[in-house]
Every structure is written in C-alpha cells, then in structure tokens.
Amino acid sequence: MTPVRNPILPGCHPDPTICRVGADYYLVTSTFEYFPGLPVFHSRDLVHWVQIGHALDRPGQLDMQGIASSGGLYAPTLRYHDGVFWLVCTLVDQQDRARGGNFVLTATDPSGPWSDPVWLGEDGIDPSLFFDDDGRVWLHGTRLAREPEWHDQTEVWLRELDPATMRLTGPEHVLWRGAVLGAVWAEGPHLYRVGDTYYLLAAEGGTEFHHAVSVARSDSVTGPYVGNRANPVLTHRHLGRGTDVVGVGHADLVEAPDGSWWAVLLAMRTYGGYHYNLGRETFLVPVAWEDGWPVFAPGQGRVPEVVEVPATVAAGPVATPPPPPEAGVVPPGDLRWTGLRGPADFATPDGEGWRLRLRPETLADAGTPSFLGVRQQHRDVTVRAVLRFDPASPDEQAGLVVRQSEKDHVVLVVTGTSEDGGRRVRAVHRKGGVATVLGERALPDGPDGPEPVTLVLQVRGQDYGLLAASGDDPPAPLAVADGRTLDSVSAGGFLGLWLGVVATSNGAPSSSVATVERFEYEPSA
C-alpha cells in the first residue's frame, strides 16, 4: 500500500476527468480563462501525477478574448477509444451567451498536439462522451430544463454522435433531472457500462457548499434511469461549514488493472473561516460495488485525508516523478505557468526568468495583459521575484500579483514618480473593482543607478504579506492584504488564486521591458 494525502492535485484543479489506457492514467481539469488551457496529467499509480501538456496551447485553437473571469473552459471529459484520445468541453462567455458552446478535441498522444476544436452545436454545459460496446458513441451533457419545475433545475440529455462526421444524429433523450426534489444544477454527467448495466453519475446542488454526487442506472443507455435510494452517494454538506473539506462533487470513475474502482472529484479545503483560497482541488476516493451500486469511500462516507492505494492499481513499472525545480525556482518552460486568454507573446525567456514587454492592458481588463502566474497550491508559501525595471513614467508598473479576477487582485509593483523621475514600490488591493493603496515607499538608487528590486509575497494562512527591497538590502514589510477578501466566497466566481508577475503601462503606449531575473515559489515546511 502507498498512502497518498488528499488532494492529489492541490490548488485550482476543478472538474477532474480521468481515463486509463493500459498501464497509464490520464487526467484533465478545467481552466476557465487561463491559457494554455486544459492541463493533461499522467500517472502510473494514481499517486504520483506529472503534467505532460495542455490540450489548448496554440494560437487559433480558441478565441477567449473578452471573456471575463470564471468564464471560459468548463468541465472537460477525457476518454480513449481505438487509439485516439477524445476531450469534450464547453466554452462559456457569461456576458454573451450566444458565444461559445460544446466542442471536441482529439489526439493520438495525450501530451499533444491536440486538434483544433470541432463545435458540436448543442447547448448547455459539461459535455461527456460514452463509447458503447456496440461501437455507438453517445454525447451527453447538462442544460437548464426545458420545462422546469423549479428555478435552476437542469436536465441531462443524451444524443448519438457520428465519430466520422462529428455530427449529432438520431433522437434526443432526457435521462435525468436530479436525484433530490428541488435540487439545482444536476450537472457533470458521465456514463459507464459495467457488465450489462449502464450507470449515470452526476453532481447536483451547485458547485459550492451543497455539492453532491448522485448515481442512477438503467438496462439501456437511453434509459429510463432509476436513482440509487442512497443518493446522494457522497457529499459533505451534512457536516456543516466548520468541516475541513467542503463542496464535494463532480466525480469521474476509473477501473484499475486489478479490478478495483476509484473516483477523482473536486472539493475545497477551508481555512481562516469559511474561505478556500486554493480553490476547487482534485481529490481521490476509493469506490466499492455493493448490490449493483458504487459505494464511495466505503466505511467512511466522506473524502479521506489519506488514501491507501495498493500497488496492484499499477499495471506496469511506476515512473519516477521528476525532482522539483531547484530551490523553488519556476523557470520558463515549466508547465505551471499560465497567462490569460491567449499566448504569452509579450514574454521572452531569459535564463531563469522572463523579459516582459509592458502592454497597455491591465489586470482589470478582460484581455491578455502582460501577466504570467502559477496556482497557489499551499496555505503557507513564500513567492519571491528579483526584478530589473526602470519605469519611464508613473503609468508604467511591474511586479508581483495575487490574482482572483479583474475586479479582485493585489499587486506589489515598482513604478515611476512624476516628481523626480525616481522609483517607488506600491502595494494596491483592487477589491470589487475599487483600488486601494495599502502602502508605498521610495526605492533608492545605487551608486550606478537603479538597482534590482526584490519583491516578496509571504503568505501565512489568510495574511498575504508584501515586502520589498532594493539592491542587497533585506526585504522589509510594506503591507499585509487580507486573503479572506480574495477567495471566491467573498469575490464570487469559481477560481482559486494565482500568484505571478505583471507588467503594464496602464493604457499608455510603451516600449519598456521588465526583466524578472528569478521567480521562486517555496512552500513553508
């Protein structure tokens, strides 16, 4: 047995989907407005996961310009059939409902390249694919009920997909409207065939506190489906808001080579009150079968803190995961880096860091500002950036950022002054769209002019300490931001926090460049 501590993918990795191909497991999660999108992970044992690529990683695959935070790429499903990986997903624009829709990508190598999207012409969200033993392919997903009995009631629909033409064919079938009377957002559906029985797995209750996993079964793929009398088969909502893990739902099942079954699902870890700054993370739960039904976390009935994974879930040798980057450095090329809505053509790798060309766009714009970040994956972490930057005006800024959305983020930036042409370091918290300066001070020049600036983000629970120093001076505190105002409970949306770097000229034309010599992400022991 190998003990693995939940979550298996910490930080904002929601809506996990999984499949196994021989000895290899593959997993993909949602990414919303971040780019590259839809990260692909690989494992041999369900314990050690290594990112191997992104499904959306090049210009022209998808246009996400103008899509606001918590829009974008929702709830993918990953499946494998006859030598091809299939990935279906939804592009959501919450301001323009006519934009986007469900699409499918394919690849013969899960690390890429993946195809351009093929649009499927069906409304709703959370599409999934089921390849039946008779060769037929079925697309299913969630939409608002056509004849709702209550507000936000949804229904799971099913229709056959012709894999040769990528077109839907035949009649539509409505399979499910939720297990519980009055339950909202029955979503995230997945179909499986176990023996001669078809199983429909779905989440419901909304992807927050009341999230839950339910299951139904049928003798026919088109139904009718009968719900399990034990529904919901997994939830934490009955534990109250004081529990350590909340919002359990959106599961996907996988069978190991030894015949055991497992589920990956999302949940949130709360701390500092009812807040979950790390977002919706990916957890692992064992599954047993009793009386023809799946039992999640048998004997416990809740997501375990530690899961014992037997060696028999691996069908072959387990690959040794690569060592973590030296001294916490996140170098260019590390797959943890993401930008917003499009390729980072403003960034050029430079040794251990980046050269960032200042762009007029700011973090408050729903475009592609000069921003690169990584997910916050630990409650206590120190992020450090060494920055060479000589701003030409007070409009020009570059530095560290804690990002939730356009309306909610914190920056620690080096900027110019209008009085004497010198530099200042400034901490600003944008909350609900309103910017407040938390602190600022002058940065002295060295004997030969502007010196490198060390910017530090010291996160300890819900305290986001902001420190700065010029040259060889030790970083000194400038301000502390309250993390409880930055998570999605307070700010809204579906995302955890990203920690990264930003460079902007705040709407003005600029030819300036900021050099991030080094970016470190060091969790506290």
Question: Which value, in Å, is the CA radius of gyration?
Answer: 24 Å
Work out the helicity level.
under 10%
CATH superfamily of the largest domain: Glycosyl hydrolase domain, family 43
DSSP strand count: 38
The CATH topology of the largest domain comes to Tachylectin-2, Chain A
Gross CATH architecture of the largest domain: 5 Propeller
Largest sheet: 7 strands, antiparallel
Instruction: Choose one word for the global shape.
Output: elongated
Strand content: over 45%
- How many separate helices? 1
Which spans of ≥5 residues are poorly predicted at pLDDT below 50? Answer: none
What does this structure look like?
The protein has one helix spanning 488-491; strands at residues 2-5, 17-21, 24-28, 34-35, 37-43, 50-56, 72-81, 84-92, 100-107, 118-119, 125-131, 137-144, 154-162, 167-176, 187-194, 197-204, 212-218, 226-227, 234-235, 245-255, 261-269, 281-290, 293-296, 306-309, 339-340, 347-350, 353-357, 370-375, 380-388, 397-403, 409-416, 423-431, 434-443, 453-460, 463-470, 476-482, 498-504, 513-523. A hairpin with a 5-residue loop joins strand 20 (245-255) and strand 21. The strands form nine sheets. Strands 26-27-38-29-34-35-36 form a seven-stranded antiparallel beta sheet, with no helix packed on it. A six-stranded antiparallel beta sheet has the order 28-37-30-31-32-33, with no helix packed on it. Strands 15, 16, 17, 18 and 19 form a five-stranded antiparallel beta sheet that branches. The longest helix has 4 residues, at 488-491. It folds into two domains: 2-313, Tachylectin-2, Chain A (5 Propeller), CATH 2.115.10; 326-523, Jelly Rolls. The chain has 525 residues and is mainly β.
